[in-house]
Amino acid sequence: MSLSFQIIPSATPRSASERESILANPGFGQHFTDHMVAIDWTAEKGWHDAQVRAYGPLTLDPASAVLHYAQEIFEGLKAFRHADGSIWSFRPEANGERLQRSARRLALPELAVDDFVESIRQIVKIDAAWVPSGGESSLYLRPFMIANENFLGVRSAQKVAYYVIASPAGAYFKGGVKPVAIWLSREYSRAGRGGTGAAKCGGNYASSLLPQKEAVANGCSQVLFLDSQEGRWLEELGGMNVFLVKRDGSVITPELSGSILEGITRLSVIQLLKDRGVSIVERRIDVQEWIDGVASGDIVETFACGTAASISPIGQLKGPDFSVGNLEAPAGELTMSIRAELLDIQYGRTPDRHGWLTRLV
Ligand SMILES: *Cc1c(COP(=O)(O)O)cnc(C)c1O
Q: How many CB atoms lie within 10 A of CB 82?
């Protein structure tokens, strides 16, 4: 199925000078482009009325299901400007497939992957001038889907909307990559067995905000969550997957447990490590293996990965009663070289040997 998009250009786009001043220092998730994509779905008609229109507020009835039962999913991906001015996205079909998996878990309708990719192309095409160039800047794309039927009964909605908004993003690490400190949450978990941990849904984030506050209060930037049953096995950060590099050069990462979100950056890092002949093992990892390994020198680097920050070295792991690692030590060598390789592919500075890039403009 392929939708056709009606294009209604904004009557009040920002001036070139306003745009340039935003692009000079975009930050993250604070400024939005002039347009958005909107597609409606009903049980009778399926997906219909695909539009590209001016960015602006949504009108929701107070009884809209999403406001009560959090029937919502989202995606996150980036558009990268290459040196020749062309604009590309990274593995967008993988995001489209993941949105379908999230939709199934949240009892939302699936959007065809080609319609998903086309929705990305449409917004980037009309707002191409908003894709920054230089450094590690990009246009962050946020597709999301909400249940907007006006009904307080508890069942999956018969009326749904899908949107894409776009936000210029500067380099995640201003002034160079710096290792971060991570807070180990023993009290809270992110997702439970049979829950929604493998789906990208707002509800997972809602439950991570309290431990996230605790992390910040303890001088850490993010939370490391363990499995909810034994409180022992590494899962992931609130929005990033984790990898550990051992002294013998091998790499380990938690295997997908059903409650871990399968990051596309994670998948790509695994592939790049395999390409280098590095031993990369997906398995259960006891958090004690991390703590003891850093202390003994058996674990020499740890990093987190996700679309927003790409790859982020972890300098320190802290809990209420312990702390391992040294925040002042420079980021690990393998961490930084995998990071550089991934960014070189995304920005078109090195051959895209896996066919991961899709040209948008
Ligand atoms: C989005 C997300 C990630 C990272 O996924 P990428 O596709 O690499 O951006 C990891 N964990 C959670 C919980 C996420 O929501």
A: 15
251-254 and 280-283 beta bridge pairing? parallel
| Kind of pairing between the strands at 310-319 and 138-147 | unpaired
Tell me the best of 241, 260, 271, 342 to mutate to test the pocket of ligand 1, counting ligand atoms within 8 Å of each CB and taking the most.
Answer: 241
Kindly state whether residues 136 and 206 are assigned to the same domain: no
List per-residue pLDDT tens for the chain, 361 residues long: 689 999 999 999 999 999 999 999 999 999 999 999 999 999 999 999 999 999 999 999 999 999 999 999 999 999 999 999 999 999 999 999 999 999 999 999 999 999 999 999 999 999 999 999 988 999 999 999 999 999 999 999 999 999 999 999 999 888 889 999 999 999 999 999 999 999 999 999 999 999 999 999 999 999 999 999 999 999 999 999 999 999 999 999 999 999 999 999 999 999 999 999 999 999 999 999 999 999 999 999 999 999 999 999 999 999 999 999 999 999 999 999 999 999 999 999 999 999 999 999 9
Provide the domain limits for residue 141: 6-169
CA of 345 to the centre of ligand 1 (A): 19
Task: For residues 339 and 194, state if they share a domain.
Answer: yes
Assess whether 32 and 132 both reside in one domain. yes
Atom in ligand 1 nearest the alpha carbon of residue 238: 13
Beta bridge partners of 234: 226
> Per the confidence metrics, is the pTM higher than 0.85?
yes
How many angstroms is it from 116 CA to the middle of ligand 1? Answer: 18
Same domain, 110 and 195: no
Q: Is residue 64 part of a domain?
A: yes
Is residue 212 within 8 Å of residue 223, measured between CB atoms? Answer: yes
Show the tokens assigned to 284: 């259960």
- 112 contacts 121 by C-beta, under 8 angstroms: no
